[in-house]
Amino acid sequence: MTADVGTHAVVRFPAVRLRLPPVALPTLLLFTGAMALGTCATWLALTGGVPWWVTVPLHFAAMTGMAVVVHECAHHSAGRLTWLNSALGRLAMPFVSVVGAFPSERYLHLEQHRDPADPVRAWAVRGPAWQLPLRWLVVDVWHICAYLRRSAERPQLEVAEALAMVLLVPGVLIAVAGSGAGWSLVPVYLLPQRLALAAVTWWHDWRPRDQAPGERGYLQAHKANPALPFYRYPEAWRETKSAAAAAIAEGAGEFRVLSVGTTRPLTPRAVELTLDVPDELRSEFRFRPGQHVELRAVVDGEELHRRYAICTLPGEDSLRVAIKNSGRFSRHATTLRPGDLLDVRPPAGEPAFVPGAKHVVVLAAAAGIAPVLPVIAQALTVPRCRVTLVYINRSGEDTMFAEEVTGLARRFEGRLRVLHFRTDERDRDLWPATTARRPFQNVADVLAISDERYYPGTLCPQRLGELLDSRLHPAKVDEWVLCAPSAMSDSALDVLAEHFVPESAIRVETWCQGR
């Protein structure tokens, strides 16, 4: 890749990749079981079959289970279907809070993940020790007050639903109390719900303060992978050891001296180097799509290291990297000629493609295409897998691997859709009427050209949001791969979060500013 783009995977604890099913059966069973348990406990309490103090723990268990369901749905972990997460969350919410609405609670919870210092959480963990248990009992009231203070920046329908729930559930409780059954609400609903709410707040907000860094547990797994379903945490803990081993192996290979075989200009400022690997080193330099190599050279008397993505397509044996002239090392590397020698560390990094995905969306900007192009080609080799490439460049002249992208679109006939965004609105590709066209050779040519579309301007959050509301709706996409400058990646991640794309379905290739 370029001198400014590192494409190695950033190892996190725990490093777990998963593809959610349309419906997460364990979450659905938890909801059904909690509902059945709560119904049974209510029947026992109202018929007098057992003392009220026996049914309170049953209701407590049922409402705690409902709190887990709400939490799963808030992270879009109840399955890939957006409507299912919304429906389950709304159905479970009245068992968790007297005044809360699911969309507003989801917003507040995700904001706490984005900003751990959010004042909503601070209210439940900071204050006199004697006050904290009392605050936990009424934390949902604090949440709705905090939400209403931010309501001016929230969608009108979401605010309307929050206000409706503030009136609806308390109104129903008042009506029941007016009918003479008010005391029955205490053991059946109010008391166990308050206890469950306090327990969940203690567990999720206050308890992490007392845990040692690196301690294995739910909270550490959830912090590292918020969208990981609760039933996958044992797998997360098992992945810890392998993730640590991968981090150690990242720099374990020794540098080998390889010669430059060929060079190929990609753009006026970027070249592709082919490195000759001797037969005795071929097993050591065997690679997979999404991996990188580290190059080392002495530039102006200083030893420099830089990682580059391997841009070799599946089925090809040569080891190739793309380098853009944008730093000290890259300026040196782009002057290399066939026969020059380089110190190269063997391939490392994790594959970026999870088998089983049916629709993969790749967002790449400029040189960010280098590490993801092999991933795109690999995904297309899987029958019935589709890929949408959102590719941002200044102009066609600055577009790396333009011919390879077009070749893949034509080769796989409709399974690769490319959306080009060009920030230079004078770019000729944006005005096809001004460019010479060759005659169509066959129907495949017509279909292939229709698979590449060009749009003026960059991919701003609004335009990405419009795509997510239409052709790239989260329910239609299994995997997202981002490789762009940090500002663009962060902006895209915010938009994906607003559309409830599970974090487990997103892969971000690190864009590193180097020398």
Report on this model:
GO terms for molecular function: oxidoreductase activity. Keywords: 2Fe-2S, FAD, Flavoprotein, Iron, Iron-sulfur, Membrane, Metal-binding, Oxidoreductase, Transmembrane, Transmembrane helix. InterPro entries: Cbr1-like_FAD-bd_dom, FA_desaturase_dom, FAD-bd_FR_type, FNR_nucleotide-bd, MRET, OxRdtase_FAD/NAD-bd, Riboflavin_synthase-like_b-brl. Pfam families: FA_desaturase, FAD_binding_6, NAD_binding_1. Its EC number is 1.14.19.-. By secondary structure, the protein is of the alpha/beta class. About 45% of the residues lie in helices and about 15% in strands. It has 16 helices and twelve strands. The protein has helices spanning about 25-45, 50-75, 80-90, 100-115, 120-125, 130-135, 140-150, 155-205, 220-225, 235-250, 330-335, 370-380, 400-410, 445-450, 460-470, 485-500, and strands at about 255-265, 270-275, 290-300, 300-310, 320-325, 340-350, 360-365, 385-395, 415-420, 450-455, 480-485, 505-510. The strands form two sheets. It has a six-stranded antiparallel sheet. The longest helix has about 50 residues, at about 155-205. Residues about 1-15 and about 435-450 have low confidence and may be disordered.
